[in-house]
Automatic annotation (TrEMBL):
This is Adenylate kinase isoenzyme 6 homolog. It catalyses: AMP + ATP = 2 ADP; ATP + H2O = ADP + phosphate + H(+). Belongs to the adenylate kinase family. AK6 subfamily. GO terms for molecular function: AMP kinase activity; ATP binding; ATP hydrolysis activity. ATP binds at residues 18, 20-23, 114. It comes from Parnassius apollo (Apollo butterfly). GO terms for biological process: ribosomal small subunit biogenesis; rRNA processing. Residues 38-61 are annotated as: NMPbind.
Length: 176
């Protein structure tokens, strides 16, 4: 399917829970005036959640229903999509994919603070150790649009925001 030319790029911010995706998305949205699309909130708002997973203490996402809901939102561009997964989104939606990473120690502390424990905590730490979400993004999108950003400190957070804003400006220069 041929994509419609956009005047603004769509970007995906992905990574293991706890790496700082939402913080980055909130700050980016404020700086760029792009629309922050929190997939978990969209899924709740549009009833795209299925039965509850007792092991991970969260509902399953109905990906097909969510994609139907989001399709119209993505056409014009100017979206920042925030989600830990990336492989089920259509490749045509995104001009840039930013995989946020953090050290295991930092991630452990952040997830413990959120109340994660047991299998959910262990699986998320292992997900980061084995670069699962980085590999998922790299296998789902063209390599030139996937960028990995380290996000352990406040300084790195601010640098990451600047990096993405600069990327958006370059995209606009090259595509308008």
């Amino acid at each position: 399917m041929q994509s419609v030319p956009r005047s603004l790029p769509n970007i995906l911010i992905t990574g293991t829970p706890g790496v700082g995706k939402s913080t980055i998305c909130k700050m980016l949205s404020e700086r760029t005036k792009f629309i922050w699309r929190e997939v978990s909130k969209l899924a709740e708002e549009y009833n795209c959640l299925d039965e509850y997973d007792p092991e991970y203490q969260c509902p399953f996402l109905n990906e097909d229903k969510l994609l139907d809901v989001m399709e119209g939102m993505m056409v014009k561009g100017g979206n920042i999509v925030d989600y830990h997964g990336s492989e089920f989104f259509p490749e045509r939606w995104f001009d840039g994919v930013f995989v946020i990473r953090t050290s295991n120690t930092t991630l452990y502390d952040r997830l413990k603070e959120r109340g994660y424990s047991g299998k959910k905590l262990e699986d998320n730490i292992q997900c980061e150790i084995f670069e699962t979400l980085l590999e998922e993004a790299q296998s789902s999108y063209k390599p030139e649009i996937v960028k990995e950003l380290q996000n352990d400190t406040q300084e790195q957070l601010l640098t990451n925001i600047d990096t993405i804003v600069e990327w958006i400006e370059r995209w606009k220069e090259n595509n308008l």
